[in-house]
Amino acid sequence: MTTIEQLERDVWPDPGPDATFLVRRCTELRRKPLAEFTVEDLRIMLGQEVGVLALLPLAVQVLLREPLAEGDYYPGDLLHNVLRLPDSAWSNLRAERERLASVLAALLAGPPFSDPDLRRRDPYREIREAILRFLGR
What pLDDT score was predicted for residue 122? Predict the structure, then answer.
């Protein structure tokens, strides 16, 4: 079963005892078979921009089926991290980006994203703004 370490041909050393939870988790996930990744695993790694070439296509597959797929934080937390990736992450995924853009345009038309009164710090408002940037609006 393929891992990020195998694909990138880059083995990270074991983190030291003073390493943060996030460093330890990312190191573990680089060694986890891609077929076993959960939404939360994708959210963590893409949020840290680790293994993007391997993981972004997997995340897009999830988001096309369930745009508000939820890791450990809130509905849409995976989408939020995917939309924060730099444009360069999509350079080899033009068709996937277009399919996701179509799904997200439809998502914007309904609640909760169509509500003009979303509070300033509401995660849905932040996701809506990220979707608008992604769509170039």
Answer: 82
